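W.,

You were right to be curious about this one. When I first looked at the sequence I had no strong expectations either way, so I just let the prediction run and decided to look at it fresh. Below is the sequence, 342 residues in total, followed by the output.
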Amino acid sequence: MSDKVCVALVGAGYWGKKLLPKFVSNRNSLVRVICDIHAGHRTEMNQAYPDIPTSESIDNILSDPSIAAIVLATPPATHFPLARKVINAGKHVWIEKPLALRIDEGRDLVELSQCNKTVLFVDHTFLYDPAIRKIRELIDGGELGSVHHIYSQRLNLGRIKRDSNVWWNSAPHDISIILYLLDGAPQTIALHGYRYLQADLEDLNMAVLELSGGVSAFIYHNWLFPENTARLTIIGSKQMLVYEGKYEKRAITVYEYAVDPADSAPSGIQDLPTTIPSKILAEHTLPGLTDQEPLALAVSDFVAAIQHGRACTSNGIFSLRVLETLAAGEKSLRSGGAKVRI
C-alpha cells in the first residue's frame, strides 16, 4: 500500500512539538490538522506550520473520514478517555506514555483496539534506540552471561510536572526498557517516594524491582539533581555494561571483569583472606549506534503498522505489562514502600 497515512496531532505542547516534525518529515505520513485546546499553542503552530490547519476540537477530527490516525500528545490523565473516543471512531492511535493510569483502563483500550482492528501504539521511544536493541542482542547472545542486576537512573533539574509525579513520568521509560531486554517477568516491587518541591507530588523515588530468575533492578528518579542523567547499568556474570541514554550522549560501554572465586585459597589454609580480588580487565565503547534517531524510527513503525496491518514493537499488549508494573509501584508508594506483588 503506497498511500500516505493521514494523521492528526492532538496536543501541541512540549512533546507534541517534538513529535510533529517527525510525522511531517516521514515520507509515508501526511499531517492534516493540529488540535489543541490552548489558543497560544494553535497560534504558535500556525506560525511554524502555516500549511497545516489547526482546530480546538477533537470531535471535528474524529468525524473526518480522511484522517486515519490520531497522535495523542496530551497529559496522562487524558490518555484513556481520549484514546477510547479515537478507537471507537475506528481510527488508529498513538498514545504518549503511559498507556493509561489504571490497569482496567489499559485492558479496555487493548481489547477495544483488537475488536476494532486498529493499531494501538504507545510511545516507549527507547525500544527504537539502536543502542537498546544492541544491548538486547548482547544479552540474548550470552555476551554478558547471566544478568544479575540492573540500575537505572533518570535524573535532572528541568521540567517539573504539576499534573503527575516523577514515577508516572519517568518510570515508563525504565520499565519498558527492562521488559524489552529481559525474558524474566517482574515479580515484586517496593517503591519509596519523597516530596520536596510540591506538597502533593513526589519528585524523587527509588524502586526495588525483583524479576524471575533472581534478577534485581533499582530504579532511581529525581527532579532535583545537579546533572541531567539517563543511564542504565547492567551487571552480568561475564561482563558489565553502561548505556548512556541522553540523546546527545547515547553510547554503550562494555566492561570485561574478573572476580576470583571465593574458595580459591590454597588447600589446607583455614584463614581465608578478608577480601575477594576483583578488577576491570578491559573496557570498550561500541561504535555506530547513533546514526538513527529513535523517535523517527518509532514514527516509521507506527505508520508501517497501519499501512501493512501488522503489529508494532511498542504495542498495547506490551504497554499493558508496563502499566501493571507502574500500578504496582503506585500501590507500594501509597503503602509506605511495602513490597507489592505484580
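Here's what jumped out at me. The chain is about 35% helix and 25% strand. And, maybe more interesting for your project: The chain has a mean pLDDT of 94.

Coffee later to discuss?

I.
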